[in-house]
Design goal:
This is Transcriptional regulator, MerR family. Pfam families: MerR_1. GO terms for molecular function: cobalamin binding; DNA binding; DNA-binding transcription factor activity; metal ion binding. The protein is of the alpha/beta class. The chain has three domains: 76 residues, Orthogonal Bundle (Multidrug-efflux Transporter Regulator, Chain: A, Domain 2); 76 residues, Methyltransferase, Methionine Synthase (B12-binding Domains), Chain A, domain 1, CATH 1.10.1240; 127 residues, 3-Layer(aba) Sandwich (Rossmann fold). It has 13 helices and seven strands. The chain has a five-stranded parallel beta sheet, with helices on both faces. Strands 1-2 form a two-stranded antiparallel sheet. A hairpin with a 5-residue loop joins strand 1 and strand 2. The protein starts with a helix and ends with a helix.
Length: 288
């Protein structure tokens, strides 16, 4: 049997919400132990998961609780089969869609070109994924499934790129401790569109190894992304160290939540928004 706190954690809601549902809609009906504390069964947990999933897809509690558990399941199944478009559809896609569903959605946007794919297809999808994660409807394994499909499509955009002598060359590097690569890959694809040849280093590397990589690749710039999981003070220290280690003519470009609004040393460019890539890339081309 589950306590109200355990039930709320499983559902990603507060204990107060469960008590409101009980008082307002008569559901769930708890059992009571000898001390009068609420206890809930595994079956009640599964039934309330249906409620939460429907709520995540835009249904109101009053409407949901007016249905039987069987009717809720039928409604959820029907909603999952709808086309994955709009905010509600994207939330359904990230919470319930198969790998094939995600691939089909991304392929539709990929056919429109890299920029449309990223700005109009991928970013809304990632926003829905983040929202699903926050409320507990997206598991770690599900996040990895979607990330893998996205990474495969981004790699396809870069695979056809061939360097020329006229192009500036930028290395896209993930430092040790950074777990997320999607932001870096999106940046590489957009820089590539603007005439910058992009080499994405597949392995995590120590900060001290970055200069060697830049020297071997003969790059004019190095780009790094620091997600919200990366400690802000460590990101700053790594950037300062890297600026000291690299030649002055190698530009450093950084982005990500961990460096938002950060005051950076000279020779480091902050890309606070992917829509700034055009301007930053144009400056690289001019310097080349």
């Amino acid at each position: 049997m589950l306590t109200v706190q355990q039930l709320s954690q499983e559902l990603g809601i507060t204990p107060d919400t469960i008590r409101v549902w009980e008082k307002r809609y008569g559901n769930p009906v708890p059992q009571r132990n000898r001390r009068g504390h609420r206890r809930y069964s595994q079956q009640q947990l599964e039934e309330l998961r249906l409620v939460r999933n429907l709520q995540m897809l835009g249904k109101k509690p009053k409407e949901i609780f007016s249905l039987t558990p069987e009717q809720r399941f039928e409604l959820l199944t029907a909603m999952q089969k709808r086309s994955f478009s709009g905010e509600e559809g994207l939330l359904s896609l990230v919470c319930f869609g198969s790998a094939a569903d995600v691939e089909a959605y991304l392929s539709k946007w990929a056919a429109k070109g890299c920029a449309d794919f990223i700005f109009h297809g991928l970013l809304p999808l990632l926003s829905a994924l983040e929202n699903g994660w926050i409320v507990g409807n997206v598991t770690i394994s599900r996040e990895h499934l979607i990330s893998d499909v996205v990474m495969n499509q981004l790699k396809l955009f870069l695979d056809d790129a061939k360097p020329t002598r006229e192009q500036p060359h930028c290395a896209f590097v993930t430092l040790n401790g950074e777990r997320h690569r999607l932001g870096l890959m999106m940046g590489a694809c957009l820089f590539n569109l603007q005439g910058v040849y992009c080499s994405v280093v597949s392995d995590d590397v120590p900060t001290a190894e970055v200069p060697r990589i830049c020297q071997e690749l003969k790059t004019q710039a190095v780009a790094l992304s620091f997600s919200g999981n990366y400690q802000r003070h460590k990101a700053f220290d790594d950037i300062v160290a890297l600026r000291t280690l690299l030649p002055d003519d190698v530009q450093i470009i950084v982005g990500g939540k961990a460096v938002e609004d950060m005051s950076l040393p000279p020779g480091v460019t902050l890309c606070g928004d992917l829509r700034q890539v055009d301007t930053i890339a144009a400056n690289l081309v001019l310097k080349k």
